[in-house]
Amino acid sequence: MAVFEVLVEVTLRPGIADPEGATIERSLPMLGVSGVSGVRVGKAIRLTVEADDEAGARRLVHDLCERFLTNPVIEDATVTVAAAVML
Amino acid sequence: MAVFEVLVEVTLRPGIADPEGATIERSLPMLGVSGVSGVRVGKAIRLTVEADDEAGARRLVHDLCERFLTNPVIEDATVTVAAAVML
Amino acid sequence: MTDRGLALSLGLTDDEVDRIEAILERDANDLELAMFSVMWSEHCSYKSSSIHLGRLPTEAPHVLVGPGEGAGIVDCGDGVALAVRIESHNHPSAIEPYQGAATGVGGILRDIFSMGARPIAVMDPLRFGPLEDPRSRWIAEGVVAGISGYGNAVGVPTVGGELKVDPCYAGNPLVNVMALGLLPVERLVLARASGVGNLAVLLGSTTGRDGIGGVSVLASAGFSADAEVEAAKRPNVQVGDPFEEKRLIEACLELLESRLAVGVQDLGGAGLTCATSETASKGGAGMDVWVAAVPQREPGMTPVEVMTSESQERMLAIVTPENLAAVLELADRWDVRANVVGEVTGTGRLRILSEEAGVVLGDVPAASLDEDKPQYSRPRQEPADRAERQADDPGRLPRPTDCGPDVLALLADPSVADTTWVHRQYDSQLFLNTVVSPGADAAVLRLKAPGVPAADGSKGIALSTDGNGRWCSLDPRRGTAMIVAEAALNVATAGARPLCLVNNLNFGNPEHPEVMWQLSEAIDGMAEACLALDLPVVGGNVSLYNESQGRDIDPSPIVGVVGLIDELDVPPPAVELVDGGVLILLGGRADTEASLAGSLWADLLHGHRGGELPPLDLARTARLCRLLAELVFDGLVFGAHDVSDGGLAVCLAELCIAAGRGVEVVDVAGASALFSEAGGRVVVCADGDGAAAGITRRAVAAGIAHQVLGSVAGDRLAVEGMVSVPVAELASVWRRALPRLMG
Amino acid sequence: MGATVGVVVFPGSNCEHDVAEAVSRLGATARLVFHKEASLGAVDAVVLPGGFAHGDALRPGAIARFSPIMAAVGRFAADGGPVVGICNGFQVLCEAGLLPGALQKNRGLAFLCQEVELATVSARSALTAGVPAGTRLRVPINHFEGCYTASAATLAGLEAGDQVVVRYVDNPNGSAGNIAGISNEAGNVVGLMPHPERASHDLLGSEDGNVLLRALLAGTGRSLAR
Ligand SMILES: Nc1ncnc2c1ncn2[C@@H]1O[C@H](COP(=O)(O)OP(=O)(O)O)[C@@H](O)[C@H]1O
Ligand SMILES: [Mg+2]
User: Fold this and answer.
1) CA dist., res. D124 & res. D222, Å (int)
2) D152-161 pLDDT, tens per residue?
3) Interface of D with C in 194-213 (CB under 8 A)
4) Predicted structure pTM score
């Protein structure tokens, strides 16, 4: 048994409008910031997962992403296993 | 001059309550999911930054986080430079 | 040995520590010091203001519960009562606008439903610095978003408020929140811990390190220029959870409805310390609290942290052992955490134990925290420059011949401009009660609520919040009387009779004698106005230390007035004009010169703030309120708007804009009459000369000065010899101002 | 005897009493059904009311779709029973897959509480049966996440299948195709962002919402006969 620190990055699918990102980008000039583009705002969800091994942790989190953490109509997810602590 | 793909993860500072994360965690049993804890919800902001070098890109983004992307009173930001394309 | 260094850092004075040692008849340990420091903080103890608050009239036959409890409660008849309360969350909102405002809403709602009342409405008087300044804009955006985000999600409509802007609020915005609740009279419960052996059940969120010492550090001190000092306050920021609060509302109301709780008390400022000591001392009992039994969000929390944490969305219920199982089951149904954290004792002492039957960590007389609070008669002094300022009358200011441009400038001021940008972000309609939405003089609601069958919606209530720092900075006494009069008139224009008033006294640093003088004067002005207008004060809040970089805010009392409409079967007159309508000014005349002192015109267009406020005849205003309510009841009024910021000019312009119709007004004696903000005046619209004659006849009979101003005609605001501006132009300036500022 | 409308109460729902009041004024009986129930009981129609079910955590409706009662709602819908999701209820139905598409944040990134003008489109849905297409209605909206989004194929399918129920006359939130409400293919499951119950009494400024609620109640007769 081990404990895994997992980061799920939920992003809007390509082609889905991102008003938040657009708003940030639009306000950058006012802040005197230039050279920044392609702003997209997503979610960073951190979880601690108990599983036998990393593969097991990934399976669990992928299932969670499909059923719950993302809405497939508009979102994708990227899963990163940050750290692992053996028990 | 180069172009950098940057990921800013905005998280609530340690000790600041995360009601959304807590609600998600409390709902997991209803989904038949166990072994998941410590759910924290933050933002994942992706940007494309033009700068002379990675250090410059970081400076720019850190400044942006301080002044605009976060409220340092409750939020921390972690900046990761994902990829770089030389021009 | 009592650690006086610690005491000092907790905001306790040496005298206060002596007092504590006298009460304990021994040295105080650190936990006890921490508990006294939060309970004796300005925010919780009112130690600077309480000796003055006693001068406010609080009695009336229909007042069931006056100031001092969670909320004031007034009888509306038919076995239905209204719970009313106002609170401020100024300092937290300056640091984290969204969460500061959100937790402000959450906190006051707990005061309402802890009394067994279903929260039915919120109003939010707001004060910000100039919105051209990015920081003030950031604060305004965050505050409005926070009220929207919390209020909408918790399921309580925000039906009105105020938005005013002045440089004095740039470093210290004001976020006041007024809340109303409805309850069957027989459900009325006061937070009492009686019955030795009864259990203290903590409901809701876990307890974390957030908000430690919030009341003492944050709410009871000003903002300094020192970044270090400011940074030290940061851990205080709390995050609101409207979803937890929504479940708490449902669970607590079910608890009280089913008589499963002896009493319920909210955890607000000073957290568990306040809730346990107040319930115990009010019940004439004692209480043991078991620290380890309190569900904690973070590992390794100390007893001090547990006892003073201000984690949000927590309630304390006093429950008999027989009912415990039922209470836990009810809480579980709503997924509300519930833990027994202590029990009521007969000792009269509040004892903090490590765990049930554990080591005693602190032991103080419960009443001492609550009832033995220090009271200060702080030095008061009239500002040195007062006479000079009063002598400097704006009458000398240059008067324009064409007043049109000035009217447009006033309409573009955020304190006058259309506030749709704000209240469109609020759910103002939940419960199907909102008959008059934000945008009118007063919000009007049908009197009914889920779980209160006796209230069938045939009656109504009218609400208005008002404040005016510009008036009060010239003369806190008369200025405060004027805002009470304005709120009462706003409610009367909806056809309501006065029921009660709540007030929030937002002032600067009480250690400045001028500020204490302002506070005392304002209280006297409020008392005079409330007596004259039959408005019992059923609740209030005092927010001091509103200062930044050593500058106190203008004295900014804010009042909320509630009126009762006995039969609400047709919508009351709005800010409206009807074709062929005749305009009548009630409460004064405009054909003679008037004082411009305290007017927005003098301030905005000439940066002038001097002179003596126009006199206010309170007795006449009381008669006017009664007359208005009668005229509305008799269906004679087809539109109404009170004269306030911007004077008659803005009042007429807002009527034109709302109606999309023009007016032709005559006999206005120059700019002073057009822009004067003399109080106690209303413009009403009658449908034709006959009706107008009827109204003026009754005004004469009631001994109320009045003047027929002109008629509804054309598509311009036309004031003979002074103003001629197309209504369309007025409207676009008025509507665009705030959206443009907020970007 | 009038129809019985089951109004589902999730933790965080807040329009359940309003819906109950509105349908009761039209002669129906409202029964509140708690989300932890496994069955709807004997009801002729189901309404998922507005509010913030489960605090809208993660996404509006993301958790609510897993509430025990939703299995029963799914069966009721599959049997052709009329199911209407209002505002948050619409979001729940989309998350539950009972309706296509998703609701994103309003384009203006602000919560909007205001009256809007609607035009009915389909005349066969549970909420618009018998209401002539193009009927104009003044009904309030009250949401932050009401921008209807779906793939081009889904949108085309909705239009082709007469599944668009109401459109905004003046689009307040950026919804694709000005869509304010849609139905499933059969038309018995409807979701819309505007709140008909808030336009159900003359003192509230509009009674146009009753047009939709009446159609719903009238339809229950048919679905009972089914
Ligand atoms: N912060 C706010 N929240 C909600 N409604 C507001 C707010 N500020 C102003 N309003 C609404 O805008 C209208 C005009 O406000 P105000 O000019 O202060 O009214 P009055 O001067 O008659 O008291 C009122 O109906 C008020 O409820
Ligand atoms: Mg007014």
Assistant:
1) 12
2) 999 999 999 9
3) 195, 197-198, 200-201, 203-204
4) 0.95
